[in-house]
Structure prediction request, 316 residues.
Amino acid sequence: MSHLKITLASPRGFCAGVERAIRIVENALIKYGAPIYVRHEIVHNRYVVDGLKAKGAIFVDELDAVPEGAQVIFSAHGVAKQVFKDAEERELDYIDATCPLVSKVHKGAQRFYNDGCTLILIGHAGHPEVMGTMGQLPSGAVVLVETVEDVDGLDFSADTPLAYVTQTTLSVTDTQDIIARLMARFPKIRKPKKSDICYATSNRQDAVRALAEEADLILVIGAENSSNSNRLVEVARQSGCSAVHLIASHDDIDWSWFVGRSCLGLTAGASAPEELVQGVITACEARFETEISLLNHIEENVHFRLPRVVANVVSE
Prediction:
């Protein structure tokens, strides 16, 4: 049996916003009983979603799939203002599980708009968080840019009041490049008081960057539609590791990836539970003589309060 060193990135996995969103659903199920409806995936992870389904959560694409008078929860990615209005018009009892750091971006966007600024949003088209942020303001009030080239294509006069906000789960480095181009083209553009990219995204990217310095194979556990997980793959490759793969669980591993590799770097996106990490370790231990070490980048101690309606719920 060949030897394999497994180096675990820290921090990895669940962030405070994800933990909060999952607890909201779990506590709502305890308090109100099944079924509880959830608009969109509460977080981008099939394992988490399936676990909540087993407890009685029903996931729907839009509110028209929610029966009259039912309890519905909005996902951690945030929703447009119109979604709240639609829920109120139908008299649905809703709970907002939007991550507080996403809500901060929403409030910042609203402040800039109230001050008369045209808002530029740095983010990925079609992502639920981006759709939710754009939906805070009237149609046409937000211009989305994804790349430096998009910034070059903007056509604003020098006296147009501008401001920018960003999606919370972007690549820190790529976003810095886009912001630098915005500042160069529009020196008077207003910016958030603090970076909109969340602490968990930054910390996990820093950790995988350090991981890439010693691992010759990196596995990132996360969903294909998870922005922060995909950014971890990109950062690992940009940091010098040529063999980087995104997997949902150990079932996705192609063991040919390990041929000629001596050090596996292992991390997980902010929506991926630790059980999936342990599943990969167990699968490796069945095939290799393993040595496990922890690459500790930073300790996280962030916690977010639950909405009052589902706080302090105790299981019977």
Notes: Residues 111 and 289 are 56 Å apart (CA to CA). The longest strand covers residues 3-10. The chain has a mean pLDDT of 96. The chain has three domains: 3-14+199-296, 16-99+304-310, 101-185.
